[in-house]
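Reply to dn_fold:

You asked what the input looked like. This is it:
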Amino acid sequence: MTFASRTPLPGKETSQPRPIGGAAKRRRRRLFVLLTVALGCVVSLLLLEVAFRCFWTLPPWFAEFQQAGMYATASDGSPVLQPGYRGTLQIVDRQTNVAINSLGMRDPEPVATNAAEKRVLVIGDSMVFGYGVEHDEALPQALQRALARQGVAAHVGNGGVPGFGSRSYVQHMQRLDESFHADAFVICGCLGNDSIDDTKPYSTVYAGLKVDGVIARGVRSSWRMRLAFRSRAALWLESWIVINKPSWSPLASVPIDPIEAQLTLGMPPVHKLLGGVFLDVRDEATTWQEGTAPVIPRLCGYLRESLVSARKIAGDRAIVFVILPTSRQTHVDRYAMALKAAGFEAGDYQRGLGQQRWLDAARQAGVEGLDATAVLQDAGTVQELFIEDASHLSARGCQVVGDWLAASIVERLR
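and this is what came back:
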């Protein structure tokens, strides 16, 4: 049998079979384009991040971001300094080195000391830590040198942690004493912001940074906030939004914490907290929010409670409370400028009243109080005694306070 060849009907064409694998090639081509675009976006974002890290100068209020990795979380959930941390801190043209030892202190590694050497633990916030000065220029080391000149061999430990208020650094005092074994304690209160820090009940550590207040709540609830802590480009964008379009910021939707709201009840607005001069208000019944309870007695009560706890921790060991002012308390012209910037009426405030209230709180807690204001106001200019932010002591300012403090406590250490 023969098979006749099939001839296409007129007007019809036979369909040519498509090459095998053509669809797969097109899919691979589309996938390649998508991967190329994605890779390009990733590279662009990386280059943008590198550019921001290299060329964007962090504003002063973001200086703490240079300390990423410096903080860790203690077993009780509190922020502490990360043992082994090494880094630098740039403030205007000043760069300082920061090294944290295995005890979580800004000190060299501990070494065995002889029995005759006294161990003094200095507790506080960034004023004790030495914000803007080198380790050997900070207040604890200045005190150690001054005690040596007084004939007292002492190892003075730096227990300062930036951002701590009185409740936090007294808790830290107990934690450090377990390993430091102090013979005496010096608790330093900063007039500039300790009362403000005492109204922030919750702190957290994210990306090695200590955050509190609304920022801490924002980090817990917003991926954008967490990204801003990891990325300089995102940080710039979020800061621009806060300034120019605040309603777009995730901070605008962070829920109010009822405990923090209670602690801050009646407090002045943020722009009026400059340098802590509001503590000098003449009328103790003053409140900055109508219908709320007086602010000053409550803030002094927080400090008093902290010092009562410190007194219990110290037991029969020597303990003093030292008031460290900013330049706004030590120099009359800076004080007047601070009142004006906050919009306060000068007649409603009495310079030095805040210090007296803190000394009264210390006395009520059974702790001797000392005020460094007078010695600093007579020792030199603001530029000599404070770093560029006019709030933290310079190397000379630390030494002035260290010399005065050594003369005040030397008899307790003999």
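The two ends are 128 Å apart (CA to CA).
Hope that clears it up.
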